[in-house]
Amino acid sequence: MDRLRRILDLTVGGLCCGLLLVLVVVLAWQVVSRYALNAPSSVTEEVLRYGVIWMSMLGAAYAVGQGSHLSIDMLRGWLSRRWQLRLEGLIVLAFTLFAAVVLIWGGMRGVEIAARQTSAVLRLPMSWVYLSLPVSGGVMLLYAGLNAADLMRGRSHHVPAEDMAELPGE
């Protein structure tokens, strides 16, 4: 499990870093072409728009895997350690349902609908843009499964390790 998590982390993190690098280069070219050459590139805006969509979706999936997704920690601080783990399990279940229903099922419907459309400038099939939804949903499902397995083994991203050791006696 730990090896799979490392491979997934390196793959998704590497994709996000590579995509960010491409977006920075494209943005720099857009600025140079617009202000220095006085001939704005029409391609860069679409590349940036679709690149940001893909990076956001992959970054959200990566955040789920790292346990650094948006959360409200106030409730967690009021709970006992045992209930903190139960809350963690509920969060994993919520991400599983969201990824399966909204991102994968709904995303595939969006891909089907957009299959007949192309982007204005690049003439790319819009289904490639919408494909970011089910891809990120699949990655979130993988991470949710790994997080659930960690919880079953008594490991958590949010409950400190020293608190985890005290759980059985509670």
UniProtKB/TrEMBL annotation:
This protein's name: TRAP transporter small permease protein
Subunit: The complex comprises the extracytoplasmic solute receptor protein and the two transmembrane proteins.
InterPro entries documented for this protein: DctQ, TRAP_DctQ
Membrane topology summary: Multi-pass membrane protein
Transmembrane segments: 12-32, 47-64, 85-108, 128-146
Function recorded in the entry: Part of the tripartite ATP-independent periplasmic (TRAP) transport system.
Family of the protein in this entry: Belongs to the TRAP transporter small permease family.
Species the sequence originates in: Paracoccus rhizosphaerae
Compartment annotation: Cell inner membrane
